[in-house]
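Pilot study result, target chain (768 residues):
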Amino acid sequence: MNETRPHSVIGKSFPKIDARDKVTGRAKYTGDLKMPGMLFGKILRSPHAHARILSIDTSRAEQLPGVMAVITAKDVPSTVYGISPARYDETVFAIDKVIQVGDKVAAVAALDEETAVRALGLIEVEYEVLPAVLDPLKAMDEGQPRVHPEYERNISVEIHQDFGDVDKAFKDAYHVRTDRFRGNRANHAAMEPHAAIAQWDNGKLTLWTGTQSPHYVQYHVSRVFGLKMGDVRVIKAFVGGGFGGKLEPSATEYVGTALAMKTGRPVKMIFDRKEVFLHNRGRHPQYIELTTGVTKEGKILGVHGKFILDGGSYTSLGIASAYYAGSMLPIVYDFDHFRFDCFRVHTNLPSCAAQRGHGVPQPRFAFESHLDMIAKDLGIDPIEIRKVNARKPDTTTLNDLKINSCEFTACLDKARAVSGWEAKKGKLPPGEGIGVGCGAFVTGAGYPIYRTKMPHSAAVIKVSEQGEAATLYIGAVDIGQGSDTILAQMAAEAIGINFEDMRVVAADTETTPHDFGAYSSRQTFMAGLAVKQAGEDIRRQVIGLASEMLECSPADLDIDAGTVFLKGIPEKSLPFANVASECFVRKGPLVGKGSYTPPKLGGKFKGAPVGTSPAYSFAAQVSQVKVDEDTGQVMVTDVWDVHDSGTVINPDLLGAQIEGALFMGMGEAMYEEALFDDKGRPLNANLAEYRVPTSLDVPRMHSQLVDSYESTGPWGAKEVGEGATLPTMGCYANAIYDAIGVRIYDLPLTPEKVWRAIQQRNRGQTTS
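Predicted structure:
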């Protein structure tokens, strides 16, 4: 049921809490921090994609003045680690062989960075180069080298899910169509590279790091080095973007810890941009075959998806990515029969894992393109075929994902209206086109990445002794999206005080309670529910004492804007600060606590937890493009995004999230792809040749919302941060087809691909 009491703080646009620090330069990122006696660490990386390590000679490096430590695999634990409990397959340094260019072989700590780099050049490594697996489509072939001996045919994960009767659905269908697509290998390209400072002091490790999840870092680093979790403190510095790439610990934390333990001095480690690309953990290249059967009216009867994902060298979060690729396909559109066959394979290329949307954007590109082609075959308007199949509220998908709020049909109707679809579709000048794409995403993963019975989020709020301010202690992580501000708004609303009276202490494992961090669009919902509970705990305590002071029933009191008052008689009131201060006098510190664990969701089949969530967002996008047929250059002129994200906590920040998502989606759709030579060496591991869009490329963005309320969320809120990335790729591909009648099946949609497709069209070859 919707809450009807007017809100004083949520629903209003407050500037980010950290905005002034960032624009004035006061904000300190990990690379800005300095410690007394600090050393600089650098990693020696393999130049080969696949090779046996025969010997390592560090003697010359150790003798270089200014070098304080040189370490290899023999100096660190051999404990295997990862981020997915089902597949731990990485070690701090390569032990017997390297399995990608950039694999970690040795490291140096020196008095300055220049000396550390020089020392790396003095380490002599003898390799026996081995045949490498670089083509994911051949990785499973007989006779291919094994990247990991334990994974037969280089299969990291194999998935076969069958819901309903797909064969019968195809037999009953009026029309069955098959199409094949390829998704590109993309990198998060965050402005700030990975960085950490490790300090080892009297048996206690402290890590300052630009991470998306301090508690994951704490857990995994303590596990690898055999430390008690309580002896590892992780402090999040300001983070210059993450998008999934800073969710799991990197070599900056593991190697930095080892060097700090050996030297007894703080060690700073920062990846250069090439190392960011070698670490990767970005978007999987996906090879997708979709077969769909529909009725004459366009109703989807059944879908069969066949996928091959290039996982690169290590598993990382790739198992979840593979399952997400299939589990999220039946959410946007409602159908009863679905078969999903997927192989995630290892190659001798950098590891792929979680990137904004976690395995889902490329399948959405494929399905939105595929659905448009089916609509054309049937002579149905693309928006109409989506409305015929649109997910409805309070339904359950065929793979047991429970949908509560869902205003997807309203998103489609509004997108059609605000974009002028009726006046433009099929009526624009030659070379101009309009297209639609849609998506849905989780509001927090319904399962923990490492096995624990702890809540997914917890919060503590402490009111000052004088009662004039409150501090929220939260493990949630602000990585630029503004979660500190959102959660402060929620705390103020729950307590009944002004936003300006809130302070936030976030993401320090020593001082803030457990939280899984910033991933899967979870923090507004999951951390928000914990914060709401903590704020309401404060409210109850203050109202309880105020009822004694005002000699009335607690049920007759309310708190708003820092005042405790009698309902209906607002002049009979007390300042919140006075009551809170009296609470401290009588009972000690005024503290509120809250926590959140999602309910058990989903079915019992293998992989069922992946895709489960307490709530799902929905979105429809329409884009308009102009295509230069002489060059293949595509200019996206306008994008209309209509989102169902529940109650809006901060309109300005929500708009910024949508625009950022559209911007990132545009980059992956049109420009971005990490490339390698025939020896597995990166060709464009820099921000000059790995092209991300600039302000000159951005179209006019028109962000719209539909009325929506998520009954399980804090004040009815749910996600927006990742869901807005999902429709963009298919939306652009469909608009390009509308403009020039050519279909691009693989990402990115570069001018060269568009130009070549135009040439095929002109020669009379089919492209659809």
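One observation from the pilot: The chain has 19 helices and 28 strands. A full batch analysis is planned for the follow-on phase.
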